[in-house]
Each structure stands twice: as C-alpha cells, then as structure tokens.
Write a structure and sequence with these properties.
The protein is mainly alpha-helical. It has three helices and no strands. It has one domain. It binds zinc ion. This is Zf-HC2 domain-containing protein.
Length: 68
C-alpha cells in the first residue's frame, strides 16, 4: 500500500474535494502530503479561493447589491 500521495494524486484529490467530501483516509493522506509539499498547499489554497469566488458570484446573481 502506498502511504504518500504523489503531487499528481494530491492535485486530483484537491479537485475532487470540490465536488464531494473526501473519506477520512483520503483527507489524512492529503494532509500529510500538504504538510510536506508547498506547491500542493498553494494549489489547494487557489482551489478554495476559486470555489469561494464562484459561490460569491452565484450568490451575487440573486441579490441586488450595488454593482460597478
Ligand atoms: Zn505535492
């Protein structure tokens, strides 16, 4: 059994995490990888930022807040 994710696997899990909840084992392995890998940590931060931005845009469409 492979203990650590490769960067490719970590990226895949980070993407999957946007669509579904990862299992405990997946999250644990991802966390271990992120604790050792800065580039995947940055990737994960970007994914979260993009996701939040998309949620904000989705929300913005249904409200009448001041638009530029
Ligand atoms: Zn990595």
């Amino acid at each position: 059994m492979r203990i650590f994710y490769t960067c490719k696997q970590a990226h895949q899990k980070l993407s999957e995490n946007l669509d579904r909840e990862l299992s405990l084992a997946e999250r644990t392995q991802l966390k271990i990888h992120l604790s050792m890998c800065r580039s995947c940590t940055n990737f994960g931060t970007q994914m979260r930022t993009i996701r939040m931005a998309m949620q904000e845009m989705a929300k913005g469409k249904s409200s009448d807040r001041d638009e530029p």
